[in-house]
């Protein structure tokens, strides 16, 4: 009986979280991110402010995102499950090329959501934090791929840099070209000009 109650409780929590996310997205798209308060979102979802913050303690910027766990697991899976003959960097490049500002031919609802995020500084900042939550696990996986028991500073640096790419390349006039250029440099080694040459 306890399992049934727990399952029901989890379903109710998920439904409330989804109602809040749907309400927030709808209001943000109608009035702009800055034109919407948490009170309006709670009212639109028919919940109290206390309930809103219970489900989303990070505030309104977190309402249209998951907690980052899905993102982290997907990026790790892209490396772990890559086809033979592909490097970890190639797998990461492929993964990012299908997301956010780099994705092409998105359905209209996802395109509007992406445009909202990319056009709202606070949402972009929060999205960046979600990407960076994957830094430790990605560094560990890169170390494991290289046969090291613990991540070296280079593993941590590469993980951090790859996870910063969506923000860096996403702001470029041509995000896809910027993504391509960054990964070409990463894959070939970053060379810099010699002074005085």
Total strands: the figure is: 0
Structural class by secondary-structure content? mainly alpha
User: End-to-end distance, in Å?
Assistant: 77 Å
* Helix content bin: 55-70%
Order of helices and strands: HHHHHHHHHH
- Rg (CA only): 20 Å
Please indicate the count of domains.
2
Low-confidence stretches: none
The first-level CATH class of the largest domain is given as Mainly Alpha
Number of helices: 10
InterPro entries: Homeodomain-like_sf (IPR009057), HTH-type_TetR-like_transc_reg (IPR050109), HTH_TetR (IPR001647)
Protein name: TetR/AcrR family transcriptional regulator
Keywords: DNA-binding, Transcription, Transcription regulation
DNA-binding region: 37-56
Structural key phrases:
197 residues, mainly alpha, Arc Repressor Mutant, subunit A, Tetracycline Repressor, domain 2, 2 domains, 10 helices, HTH-type_TetR-like_transc_reg, transcription, transcription regulation
Polypeptide structure, described:
Residues 37-56 bind DNA. It holds the Pfam family TetR_N. Keywords: DNA-binding, Transcription, Transcription regulation. The model has no long low-confidence stretch (mean pLDDT 90). The protein has helices spanning 2-31, 38-45, 49-55, 69-80, 88-97, 108-118, 121-132, 135-145, 153-170, 175-188. Helix content is 68%, strand content 0%. Helix 4 (69-80) packs across helix 5 and helix 8 packs across helix 9 (153-170). The protein has two domains: 2-62, Arc Repressor Mutant, subunit A (Orthogonal Bundle), CATH 1.10.10.60; 69-188, Orthogonal Bundle (Tetracycline Repressor, domain 2). It contains ten helices and no strands. The chain is mostly helical and 197 residues long.
């Amino acid at each position: 009986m306890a399992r049934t109650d727990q399952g029901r409780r989890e379903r109710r929590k998920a439904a409330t979280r989804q109602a809040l996310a749907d309400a927030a997205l709808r209001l943000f798209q109608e009035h702009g991110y800055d034109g919407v308060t948490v009170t309006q979102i709670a009212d639109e979802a028919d919940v109290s402010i206390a309930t809103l913050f219970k489900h989303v303690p990070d505030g309104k910027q977190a309402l249209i995102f998951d907690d980052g766990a899905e993102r982290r697991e997907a990026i790790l899976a892209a490396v772990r499950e890559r086809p033979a003959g592909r490097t970890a960097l190639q797998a990461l490049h492929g993964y990012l090329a299908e997301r956010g500002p780099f994705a092409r031919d998105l359905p209209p609802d996802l395109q509007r959501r992406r445009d909202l995020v990319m056009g709202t500084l606070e949402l972009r900042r929060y999205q960046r934090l979600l990407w960076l939550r994957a830094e430790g696990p990605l560094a560990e996986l890169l170390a494991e791929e290289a046969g090291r028991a613990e991540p070296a500073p280079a593993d941590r640096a590469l993980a951090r840099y790859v996870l910063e790419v969506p923000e860096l390349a996403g702001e470029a006039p041509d995000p896809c070209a910027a993504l391509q250029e960054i990964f070409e440099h990463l894959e070939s080694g970053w060379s810099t000009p010699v002074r005085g040459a």
